[in-house]
């Protein structure tokens, strides 16, 4: 089974890129972030024509997450995190697909730090940790995937010293990510590539992609019962170089049958 996550940075404006990638890569389950489209503007017909069922949680101009599946129906289990004080922000969507629970998330950016946006990011992360812990306690096989807006370690950022005070690399946020993983979740890419510099995002400015000035902020976490099934993990880096592409590249994993 091939599972992928991709921050599309505007699903309608970049639909040709998304459809091309789906056709070439053919992931079985896909988590999408930053749809930037209201609920009634999701391109369901175009995605269905590629052979994918879809579930989405839209929002006008900002945020938005979706789940796609070509290996079975999608049964929603959670829309938004429990007790979210700002449910108007479409940042979390979860469903049962092919025997798994798949949570798709778009964690807040948090800049500028300090300030209310950083406080909101920390609070949202805390709710994610609580929800993830509840799912772990239930013992269900689960994938948590999406744009976490955190670089967990120095290997995940092209010039660490320049990012120490940024909300994506702040000690509090790295600690929150470490605490989440300490529940028993496996960071798929880092688990299989422990010493590699691997990036998933390159800014549009300052020729970042050509210079490989990137960040690893898109992650796929596996619950303990799924981790032994992990066989491959990588980034479809070439997609970032396509015309009118997102500033993120798709991240994917392959799981053997459990």
Automatic annotation (TrEMBL):
Residues 4-248 form the Endonuclease/exonuclease/phosphatase domain. It comes from the Bacteria. InterPro entries: AP_endonuc_1, AP_endonuclease_F1_BS, Endo/exonu/phosph_ase_sf, Endo/exonuclease/phosphatase, ExoIII-like. Belongs to the DNA repair enzymes AP/ExoA family. It is an enzyme of class 3 (hydrolase). SUPFAM superfamilies: DNase I-like (SSF56219). PROSITE patterns: AP_NUCLEASE_F1_1, AP_NUCLEASE_F1_4. Its cofactor is Mg(2+). GO terms for molecular function: double-stranded DNA 3'-5' DNA exonuclease activity. It holds the Pfam family Exo_endo_phos. This is Exodeoxyribonuclease III. Its EC number is 3.1.11.2. Keywords: Hydrolase, Magnesium, Metal-binding.
